[in-house]
Amino acid sequence: MRWSLVRSALLALSVESVYAGQLSEVSRRKGFTPQLKRHAAPEPPKDKRFANETDSFRFYNDDSAQYFVDELPDMPFDLGEFYSGLIPIDMNNASRALFFIFQPTVGEPVDEITIWLNGGPGCSSLEGFLQETGLFQWSWGEYAPHINPYSWVNLTNVLWVEQPVGTGFSIGDVTATSEEDIAKDFVDFFLNFEKIFGISKFKIYVTGESYAGRYVPYISAEMIDRCDEELLDVSGALMYDPCIGEYAWVQQQAVAFPFIVEHNSVMGYNTSYMKELEKLDQSCGYADFRESYMAFPPNGTQPYKHFNSSTDAECDIWTGSYLEAFHANPCFNVYEIGLQCPLLSDPLGYPTDLQYSYPGLPVYFNRSDVKAALHAPMDVTWLECSPTDVFVGGKGGPQDEGDFSLDPIQNVLPKVIEKTNRVLVSNGNLDYEIITNGTLLAIQNMTWNGAFGFQHAPNTTIDITLPDLMYRDIFVSSGFDNGTEEPQGTMGMQHYERGLMWAETYLSGHMQPQFQGRSAYRHLQWVLGRIDKL
Ligand SMILES: *[C@@H]1O[C@H](CO)[C@@H](O)[C@H](O)[C@H]1NC(C)=O
Ligand SMILES: *[C@@H]1O[C@H](CO)[C@@H](O)[C@H](O)[C@H]1NC(C)=O
Ligand SMILES: *[C@@H]1O[C@H](CO)[C@@H](O)[C@H](O)[C@H]1NC(C)=O
Ligand SMILES: *[C@@H]1O[C@H](CO)[C@@H](O)[C@H](O)[C@H]1NC(C)=O
Ligand SMILES: *[C@@H]1O[C@H](CO)[C@@H](O)[C@H](O)[C@H]1NC(C)=O
Ligand SMILES: *[C@@H]1O[C@H](CO)[C@@H](O)[C@H](O)[C@H]1NC(C)=O
Ligand SMILES: *[C@@H]1O[C@H](CO)[C@@H](O)[C@H](O)[C@H]1NC(C)=O
Ligand SMILES: *[C@@H]1O[C@H](CO)[C@@H](O)[C@H](O)[C@H]1NC(C)=O
Ligand SMILES: *[C@@H]1O[C@H](CO)[C@@H](O)[C@H](O)[C@H]1NC(C)=O
Ligand SMILES: *[C@@H]1O[C@H](CO)[C@@H](O)[C@H](O)[C@H]1NC(C)=O
Ligand SMILES: *[C@@H]1O[C@H](CO)[C@@H](O)[C@H](O)[C@H]1NC(C)=O
C-alpha cells in the first residue's frame, strides 16, 4: 500500500510496543469487547446459493474451480463470482507463487483485466482490495464491512496481486534486486493466471499506488516488450501518489516546506520551528530548485539528486517535520494530514505509521477462518507490510531500497505512455508521504512522445457530478431531505498532453480510492477509455 521510510517504520515499531500495554489496560477498564459486539450485531440475510449457480459464472472452469470462494467470514454479502489463492510463477516449480484475489465485474461483462497493486515495497494489495477499490470495504474506524458503491468492480474485472515474493501470502525465496526482476516474475505469474481462467484477447490495465509507481511502469513495459498482443495487450495505466521520480529528494524534501506553509492550520507547527524550516528550505537548495524547475514548459533537465540520510541529515526537513508533527497531533497521519485524534482502528492493523486496531480485533487477513476461506497458506502470518525486505540488494539502488532500477521517468514510463496514450498520474493534496508538487516536478524531468515535460501548467478543474452514494441514507435519516443529491463539485485539477493525464485530487490522502472514491471512479473510467476528460 504505502511506502514508508525505514526510519519511520522503526519508529512505528517502538511506539507500538509502548502503547500495546496501555491500550489493553484501557480496554479492560472499560470492559470493551469488540469481538462480542461484532457477533451480537444482526447480520442481514444472505442470498441462498444454488448448487448450479456456478453455471452462470464466466470464468468458472475445471482449472479455476479450486480458486472459487463461496463466502468470507464476517462479510454478510453475496460474493457473486469470486476467486483467490496462490498461482506459481513457474508452473513446473510451485515453490515461488503469488497470491491473488480476482473478481469479475458486477456490471456488463467486459474483455478487460485491471490489475491493482499496492506499494511498500512489501505492502499487500489486499489493503487495496479491502479499503480502496474492492466491492466490500472495511476501512479505518469502521465497525463492520459494507458494500463500496464506488468499487472498480462496477466497471471492470479486477485482479489484486500480492507481489513481489515476500509480500503478504505470497511464498518463496526473495531474489529480486530490481524492478526488471519483479516484472518478469509478475508477467510469468500473469500468463499462468490467464491460462487457468481461460482468458485471452483481453485489454490489460495496470494500476496501483505509492511504491507501485515503480511496479506499474516496469510491469507494463515488460508486457509490452514480450510483444504478445493476445495475452499482454497493455492498454492503459494509472498511478496514485507514485514513486515515479527521485522520490526522497524531489517528491518529499524539495517540496515539503511550501506544503507545510499551505497546511499549517492542521499540522500545527509553532512560529520558531517554521522559521527554522524556512531557513533550511533556502540553505539546502530546495527553494532554488523549485524556482528553477517548477516551470511549464520545463527549464532544462534537472540535475542528478540523491538524498543521503547520513550526510544530508541536516537537510532532512521531511523526516524532521514528520516527527515533530506528533507533538501537536499524536494521531498525525502522514498519508492524510487532515486526520486528528482519536486514532482510528484499522481492521488491517495499520492506519498510520502507528499500527493500531481495537484491542481484541484481529487483523482480518491473519484470521485462520479467513485464510481457509481464501485458500491462503495457513502457516503464513499475514501482515499488511512485510517486516523483512522484498529486495536482496541491501540498501543499494537509486532510492536505497535494494532496488537497482532507474527511476520510471527515465525510460519505462515514457514507453508505457507512448504505447497506450492512456496513462494517468495522480496525487492527493493531503498526502505528505508523496507530495503533489513533487510528483509534478518529477513529470517535468521526463521526455515522452517527442517533447520534454508538460508545456502548459494545469489549469482545468475536475468537476465530480456523481452524487454521494455512501452517506446519503444517514443524511436522510438525520433530516437533511436531499442534502447529498447535489454534485460533489470541483474536486481537483486535470491536465492532458501527449497521452499523459495528470490529476491533482483535492481533499484526498495517499490512498485515493479510500478518501475520494468518486474521483477515483472517474479516473478509472478515463483509463478504461469510457470517457475522454476527467
Ligand atoms: C439452477 O437450477 C434452478 C432450479 O433447478 C433453475 O431454475 C435455474 O435456472 C438453474 N440456473 C442455472 C444458471 O442453470
Ligand atoms: C524449485 O525452485 C527452488 C528455488 O526457488 C529450488 O530450490 C528447488 O530446487 C526447485 N525445485 C525443483 C524440483 O526444481
Ligand atoms: C456500483 O454497483 C453497486 C451495486 O450494483 C450499486 O449499488 C452502485 O450504485 C454502483 N455505483 C456506481 C457509481 O454506479
Ligand atoms: C505547487 O506549485 C504551484 C506552481 O505550479 C504553486 O502555485 C503552488 O502554490 C504549489 N503548492 C504547494 C502546496 O506547494
Ligand atoms: C533555469 O535554471 C537555471 C539553473 O539550471 C537557473 O539558473 C535559471 O535561473 C533558470 N531560469 C528560470 C527562468 O527559472
Ligand atoms: C533528470 O533527468 C536526467 C536524465 O534525463 C537525470 O540524469 C537526472 O538525474 C534527473 N534528475 C532528477 C532530479 O530526477
Ligand atoms: C552516504 O554518504 C556516506 C558518507 O559519505 C557514504 O559512505 C554512503 O555510501 C552514502 N550512501 C549512499 C547510498 O550514497
Ligand atoms: C516549537 O516547536 C519546536 C519543534 O516542535 C519545539 O522544539 C520548540 O520547543 C517549540 N517552541 C516553543 C516556544 O514552543
Ligand atoms: C497472526 O496470527 C498468528 C497466529 O495465528 C499470531 O501468532 C500473530 O500474533 C498474528 N499477528 C497479527 C499481527 O495479528
Ligand atoms: C489553460 O491552458 C491551456 C493550455 O493547456 C490554454 O490553451 C488555455 O488558454 C488555458 N486556460 C486558461 C483559462 O488559462
Ligand atoms: C431540497 O431541494 C429543493 C430543491 O432544490 C429545495 O427547495 C429544498 O429546500 C431542499 N430541502 C432541504 C431540506 O434541503
TrEMBL record:
Belongs to the peptidase S10 family. InterPro entries: AB_hydrolase_fold, Peptidase_S10, Ser_caboxypep_ser_AS. Gene3D superfamilies: alpha/beta hydrolase. Transmembrane segments: none annotated. Keywords: Carboxypeptidase, Glycoprotein, Hydrolase, Protease, Signal. GO terms for molecular function: serine-type carboxypeptidase activity. GO terms for biological process: proteolysis. Its EC number is 3.4.16.-. The keyword GTP-binding does not apply. Residues 1-20 form the signal peptide. This is Carboxypeptidase. Pfam families: Peptidase_S10. The keyword 4Fe-4S does not apply.
